Amino acid sequence: MKLGHPKQGPLLSVALNCPDENWLENNGNCYMFSVFPPISWQRAEKACKNYGANLVCIGDIDERNFIKRIVKDNGSGKSWIGAVDTGGEKKFTWVDGTPWDNAIADWAIAQPGSPGDDQNCVSIGGFFIGWYDEPCETKYNYICEKDINKPTTPTPPNQSTTRFIPPFTLPNSRRTTQYLPPFTLPNTRRQTTRFVPPFTLPNTGRQTTRFVPAFTLFTDVPSTQGSTGKTGAKGNSTGVIVGVVVGLIVVIVVALVIGFILWRRRRYMQTTGTSTIIQNPNYE
């Protein structure tokens, strides 16, 4: 996480009452500015809730200017805040119940959009650090806010991280065995398929039987499908070429035969016409 430590220090300070050094304190609230990874508005709100917080909800001019300075000092593009239009009518509310005040809203030029569009979540940023209504699936940074005295909620147990046991060497063997146990993907309760590659037993030169489950993340089983497919394609191409050549030869032969017949017929007619001319001796 990257935090907005300001160039002008009096307003922004790290408070001992906030969870840790990643949070900034201002007027009894703690703020955390996250830039990695950029996520959707819904996931950003969920990430903040894991800290016992919400996406920042701006209740007055001082807080608005404070957040504006955090975004400006970090210079990392747009960030999600806790404003949302749940009805698609451009009637925005704050997720923590803070009353909405149009006098505090700091919309950028031509913002917000028209009712009925899909731009129902609000970000802050841009060249002049204004507010924008955006599609909620867009991935941005986000800013969390919590009361300075509110305890941090731990991450739920079903969102466990991946367990990994690195490769190790069996006694008196030449190969190492890599074992990746089942693990739970974040935000799910489904397990991946366990994969155990072949390994060498101690004091033997024989390998165990290789086992590839129905679904695995790795495979080293060679396949001949590609070469067979290429051979079949090559044979089909050769047959097509031979067929075309034979067809052309047949057409040429037929054309020659027809031409020869026409030539003979014309020749015959010319010969016959000449022989029928009779010289009449009375007409001289």
UniProtKB/TrEMBL annotation:
The UniProt keywords, alphabetically, are: Disulfide bond, Membrane, Transmembrane, Transmembrane helix
Q: Report the domain of life of the source organism.
A: Eukaryota
Q: Which residues form the C-type lectin domain?
A: 26-145
Keyword Transmembrane helix included in the entry's annotation: yes
Q: Which InterPro entries match?
A: C-type_lectin-like, C-type_lectin-like/link_sf, C-type_lectin/snaclec_domain, C-type_lectin_CS, CTDL_fold
SMART domains named in the record: CLECT (SM00034)
Q: Mind telling me which residue stretches traverse the membrane in this protein?
A: 240-263
Under CDD domains, the record lists: CLECT (cd00037)
UniProt name for this protein: C-type lectin domain-containing protein
Q: Which organism is it from?
A: Owenia fusiformis
User: Taxonomically, what lineage is the organism?
Assistant: Eukaryota, Metazoa, Spiralia, Lophotrochozoa, Annelida
